Amino acid sequence: MIFVGTVSYGVLTTRDGGQTWQQVSGIESTSSINVIAQDPQRPSHIYVGTKRSFFQSHDGGNTWSQRGSNLPFGDFRSILINPRNSNELFVGNAFQNGDKGGGVYRSNDTGATWVRLDAREHRLPSFRIWALALDPRDQNTLFVGSHSAGVYVVPRGAEGTMSERR
Questions:
Q1: Can you give the pLDDT at residue 165?
Q2: CB burial class (10 A; 0-12, 13-18, 19+) of residue 28?
Q3: Left if phi > 0, otherwise alpha if psi is -120 to 50, otherwise beta: which for 14?
Q4: I need a labelling partner for 113 at 20 to 30 A (CA). Which of 16, 34, 71, 161 fits?
Q5: For residue range 133-145, what is the model confidence (pLDDT) as tens digits?
Q6: How confident is the model over 105-123, as pLDDT tens digits?
Q7: 43, 57 in Cβ contact below 8 A?
Q8: Residue of 87, 104, 108, 86 whose CA lies nearest to 95
Q9: Which band of pLDDT confidence, cut at 50, 70 and 90, is reported for residue 146?
Q10: CA terminus-to-terminus distance, the chain
C-alpha cells in the first residue's frame, strides 16, 4: 500500500502499485498534507500531518482519528517515529500565533497522549518546527530544525524531556 499527500485532495492511496488511486476517507481534504509517516515495525500504524491537524490510523488506514490528548491544532510539518521504540513519536508543529502554538511534542503511547517538550524555559529561538531527527548513534539527542532560526541539537533528559545544551 502506498500513501500520497496532496494539496487539495487529502491523502490518496493505491493497493495495486499505482494502477488505481482512491481518496482516503477520514482525513480532511481541504488542508494541504505536509507529511505522512508509516511505522516500519508496524506498517498498520500510519500518521499524517496537515496544515491544520494531525491524524493517525492503527489499522492500516481503514479508520482515522484526529489528534491525541494534549496535542493542539497546528501546522504539522514533521513526524518522527523512534526506530528503537515505535511507541515513541515526535511531531513538529510550525503554527505560531504570537507566543502560542508551534513546538515539539512527544507521545510514548503511539499518539494517544502528547506532551510538549520545548517549553519556554528551554529557550528555542523559534517554535516554528519543520524537521525532527534522532541521532542514530545517540537516541538521547534530538535534532530540531526550525523555520528560519537554524537547527538545534537538543539533549533529552531522563524522562524524555528536552534540556539545553550550552
A1: 42
A2: middle
A3: beta
A4: 34
A5: 999 998 888 898 8
A6: 999 999 999 988 865 545 6
A7: no
A8: 104
A9: confident
A10: 44
